[in-house]
Structures are given as structure tokens and as C-alpha cells.
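Notebook entry, cofactor series.
This is the third protein in the set we're modelling with a bound small molecule. For this one the ligand is NAP. I'm keeping the input format identical across the series so the outputs can be compared line by line later. Sequence and SMILES below, as received.
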Amino acid sequence: MIFISESLHLIAARQETCINAKMKRMTSTTLPGGTFKLADDLTLTRMGYGAMQLAGPHVFGPPADHDGALAVLREVVKLGITHIDTSDFYGPHITNQLIKEALHPYPEQLRIVTKVGALRDAQGNWPKALAPDQLRQAIRDNLANLGLNALDVVNLRVGGSDAPTPGSIAEPFSVLAEMQQEGFIKHLGVSTVSTGQLAEAQSIAPVVCVQNFYNIANRQDDSLIDSLAEQGIAYVPYFPLGGFSPLQSDTLSSVAARLDTSPMAVALAWLLQRSPNILLIPGTSSVEHLRENVAGAGLQLPDDAIKELNEIAG
Ligand SMILES: NC(=O)c1ccc[n+]([C@@H]2O[C@H](COP(=O)([O-])OP(=O)(O)OC[C@H]3O[C@@H](n4cnc5c(N)ncnc54)[C@H](OP(=O)(O)O)[C@@H]3O)[C@@H](O)[C@H]2O)c1
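Returned structure with ligand:
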């Protein structure tokens, strides 16, 4: 009798595990855009989350609503998102500490993409920090504040807030390539780079993603996106909703009104439909906005709407 009830218990437990596994698979594949494979051991949901908005005002200091910030991060995982974008200079340190508090030990599928190359000064500016010792310290800080032994992806951020800065990136990128060889970093990316700087990085080590400023109204990287798509490299636009200055366009608003949705939803859906290698990391400090963004990005834009939206950037 005991044997039978134990067997039934085991069968029920196995069934539950199977259902849970199925649900997990369903959750991630039902997110808008599905997934994108960046490397053999790195597949991300195209719908990701940018954690920058979780710190205090102007990305400085702690959030006004600590528990609210943890709730957003837990909802990210509940929704099946496997890509969180962050940096140890958000806060500074605060955003990574919130991620660790909310989610550590991390779900198996979750990948945290971080970036190095800047600092915050006492006035809240973002001075560059690309010297070898600064980069090594930044990697150590990311590891400690996220509670990891190795970082999934590290982007070397080399430009300004919305455009590349000319010049060689060979020295700082080589430092990260060395730290990858040492086992502290699994994959490398670059941020706010020109095509020349990307090529320079690729001559040193493989690049799995490029994170640059791009959205429906700022399309300076159109040809770069197409060339990365051909190479199977992810393009991750920051400020997908306009960042600190929300996107404003009569065309965007009128298309959204016609489709009975919000301009944010249209802006995200347009990015997902622009190219299969585009991954989204919209930022929000609100669970409600997070859910809206996930639902909105799944909107199927009709061809005539896309044609009209393509005119926004001129
Ligand atoms: N590589 C780089 O140099 C770089 C630079 C900047 C950013 N990033 C990364 O890119 C991510 C995205 O950029 P971002 O967060 O600055 O800009 P964003 O995603 O373009 O916009 C975020 C802003 O939109 C608001 N928002 C989001 N969803 C909304 C909704 N459904 N309805 C109304 N408002 C909404 C947010 O406010 P609420 O909080 O009120 O929702 C926030 O003010 C960042 O989180 C960061 O990880 C990288």
C-alpha cells in the first residue's frame, strides 16, 4: 500500500514537473517576437527588459519605491523574459543590487547583460571609465553586486549618451577579451559604436550584440542593423521609447489611434517587425507599464501602417 501511494506520488510529482516545464517553454515562446540565438549557449527572448529606470531620479541613488522595484523585476521573470539589461553604474551599484535582491539565485534561463565603460560622478554626470584598471574594477563590481562568478554578456560602452565618439576602441576591448579568457565574462558586446569601431572589436574577439541609440524616429543605424542581421549578431536599441524624452510624433499618435492602441505599443511593435535581430529592452519602473509593453510589442502592424511609420524619421 505504502509502495503504491509512493508511486502515485512520484507519478504526480513527475507530471507536475512536466507541466511546469511545458508552461515555462510556453511562457517564453509566447512572448512577442519569440527568441534570438546570439551564440550556441546564448538564446534570449527578443522581448527583454532594461533595468536603468529602477534606480532613483536621473538614475542616481535608491528608488523611491524599493518594493515596487523588486516587484517589477519579479514580474519580468514571471512573464517569461530571459534578457535583463543593466549596468553597475546605474545608481551606481543600486540597480544591480536590486536585481540580486529580487532574483538571486537566478532562474536557469535568465541572462543578465551588463555594460562597463562609464562611471557616475558626484554631480550625476556619466564620465568615461575606459582605462584598463577601471574596466577590471567595473567587472569585479558587477560580479559582486549581481552575485555571479561570471557575467553572461558585457557590453563595452564607448561613446556618448546617444552617439559614438570617434577613435580606437582596441585597448579597452582587449581588456574585456582578456577577462573573457580568464573566465569572468562569457560573451562580449559593444555599445554606442560606429561600424569602424565594431569591425575593430570583431578583429579582437567575437561580438554577439551591439547596443546603440535607435528607435522609430532615430534611424541612423539602419544599414548597420541589416549588416548585423546578415552576420547573426543581435542589435539592441536603447531608448526604444525615446528614453528621457518620450517619443512624440503626430504620425505615431495617429497610427496608434487608428489601431486603438498606444504610441508606445506601436513604437515597440515597429522595432520587432523592423528586423529579426532586434531585441527590445524598454525600461520602466512600473509593473503596469511592463505588462503594457509586453502586450503592446505583440501588435501586428499592417503594411500600410509600417509604410506610414517609416516616414517619421524622414
Ligand atoms: N548603452 C547605453 O549607453 C544605454 C543608454 C541608455 C539606456 N540603456 C539601456 O536601455 C534601456 C532602455 O532605455 P530607457 O529605459 O532609458 O528608455 P526607454 O525604454 O526608451 O523609455 C523609458 C521611459 O519610458 C517610460 N515608459 C515605459 N513604458 C511605458 C508605458 N507603457 N507607458 C508610459 N511610459 C512608459 C518609463 O517611465 P516609467 O518608469 O514610468 O514606466 C521611462 O521614463 C535602459 O533601461 C538601459 O538598460 C543603455
